[in-house]
Design goal:
Elements lengths: L3 E5 L5 H10 L3 E5 L3 H11 L2 E2 L3 H5 L4 E4 L4 H8 L14 E4 L5 H14 L2 E4 L2 E2 L1 H7 L2 E6 L2 H11 L3 E8 L3 H29 L4 H8 L7 H12 L8 H18 L4 H15 L10 H5 L6
Parallel strand pairs: 1-2, 1-4, 2-3, 4-5, 5-6, 8-9
Antiparallel strand pairs: 7-8
Helix pairs in contact: 1-6, 8-10, 8-11, 8-12, 11-12
């Protein structure tokens, strides 16, 4: 069934995700801080652009958001001209931002007081996954709200699952990032070792990618890591933002995340090399600095 929806945040993920909703037949009103980008989206997909999150949300049954940080999410929800000020009882706010679990719980509580639902629904799959409509979406919140939102989310996801109450989606994304951090560091060290050992690193990856070492990171990032190309993908500064939230959450819940904490320090070294906007696979760059050869 076609729905009136709003989409707040047209970054590298949000832009194609909103497009999938439009192609699925929904009437989409978009908001983006840079208005020219919202207008470009409308020219490409139809629908409408709103000047504020509040106006985007005013007539929507479902409001989606995909912004950068906790502060951005607060601004577009409960800030001046935030979407929460105009959302109607019975509607659903679906947040695809990778944000903190405590903020998800806070916003869910505010939404409940106002009579609508809030789902924390961070995503994994990167820009390519968003463009191809094959994201993984991990959701926290009410079962009824999830059931109503799931068919819309499926327009850009190949996997969407309710993980538990509010905050559970964000906590699951933290697990995802912990695992990725360790995988990328291991892959970087493996490629670095292969090169130092005089092996053809590409041939090594071709062989071991068919065995137990196989991973998405190996299949999608090993070739560019070998070539030293990092000007694409999920930026180091965003991974450090995620790892910072993970470290804070681990401090609260007592989890030991020794490798993730160490990899965060390695990413700080990559930033010092000028790699703030490099893809996260750039961990290999710190291993292959000229002074280490």
């Amino acid at each position: 069934m076609a729905e009136d929806v709003a989409f707040i945040g047209l970054g590298i993920m949000g832009y194609p995700m909103a497009g999938h909703l439009a192609r699925a037949g929904h009437q989409v009103t978009v908001y983006n801080r840079t208005q020219s980008k919202a207008q470009r989206w409308v020219e490409e997909h139809g629908g409408a652009a709103a000047p504020t999150p509040a106006e985007a949300a005013a007539d929507a049954g479902f409001v989606f958001a995909c912004v950068g940080r906790d502060s951005d999410l607060r601004e577009v929800t409960v800030g001046e001209n935030g979407a929460f000020s105009r959302m109607q009882p019975g509607t659903v706010f679906i947040d695809h931002t990778t944000a903190s679990a405590h903020l998800a719980r806070e916003l869910a509580g505010i939404a409940q007081q106002k009579g609508f639902e809030f789902l924390d629904a961070p995503i994994s799959g990167g820009q390519v996954g968003a463009e191809n409509g094959v994201l993984t979406v991990m959701v926290g919140g009410d079962e009824g709200a999830f059931a109503s939102a799931e068919p819309l989310i499926e327009s850009y996801a190949r996997m969407v699952k309710l993980m538990g109450p509010s905050g559970s989606g964000q906590l699951t994304k933290m697990v995802n990032q912990i695992c990725i951090a360790g995988l990328v560091q291991g892959l970087a060290e493996g490629i670095h070792f292969a090169k130092r050992a005089g092996l053809d690193a590409g041939a090594v990856i071709d062989v071991i990618s068919k065995g137990a070492a196989q991973s998405w990171q190996m299949e999608n990032r090993a070739p560019t890591m070998i070539e030293g190309r990092f000007e694409f993908g999920f930026a180091v500064e965003w991974m450090r933002k995620d790892l910072g939230m993970i470290l804070e959450e681990a401090e609260r819940n007592g989890a030991r995340i020794d490798v993730a904490a160490l990899v965060d320090q390695f990413y700080a070294e990559v930033e010092a090399l000028g790699g703030k906007r490099w893809d996260t696979s750039s961990l290999i760059a710190r291993l292959e600095r000229p002074q280490d050869k």
